[in-house]
Amino acid sequence: MGRHAGSASAGLAVLLLSVTPAGAATAVPPGAVLPDSRDSQAHCRTSVQGSQAVARCHNPYPRTDRVRLHIECARWWDIDTDSAPVAAEPAMTVRIEGRCWKEIRAVWVSHER
């Protein structure tokens, strides 16, 4: 009787140990850092050809991401441009274009919520 009672309680202890960690993994511990909003932004690629710049942004996430194309022109007299925000809806790809009169120094995309 002692032999069977010991193995039954050992089996129960193993069962409890294997269930407890799974339940604990689903809870968010206090003070935990949640994922950064950059993890849910549209993925954008930019290209420059001469004085033309293009950004293509694909949003694989369920929330809309508003993207803007920014262009810094190389010449001091050439006006830098910032596009109006474009809504990249979920599962959608958007294209934004812009230009300088002459060379382009830098191109980047910003994200708004």
Secondary-structure-based class equals alpha+beta
CATH class of the domain at 40-112: Mainly Beta
Write the element-wise H/E pattern from the N-terminal end onward: HEEEEEEE
Would you identify the regions where 5 or more consecutive residues have pLDDT less than 50?
7-35
Strand content: 35-45%
Layout of helices and strands, plus pairs?
Layout (H helix, E strand, L loop, with lengths): L1 H25 L16 E7 L2 E8 L5 E9 L7 E2 L3 E3 L3 E8 L4 E9 L1
Structural overview:
There is one protein chain. The chain is of the alpha+beta class and 113 residues long. The chain has a domain at 40-112: Immunoglobulin-like (Sandwich). The chain contains one helix and seven strands. It has one helix at residues 2-26, and strands at residues 43-49, 52-59, 65-73, 81-82, 86-88, 92-99, 104-112. The strands form two sheets. Strands 3, 4, 5 and 7 form a four-stranded antiparallel beta sheet that branches. Strands 1-2-6 form a three-stranded antiparallel beta sheet, with no helix packed on it. A hairpin with a 2-residue loop joins β1 and β2 (52-59). The chain is elongated and about 40 Å long.
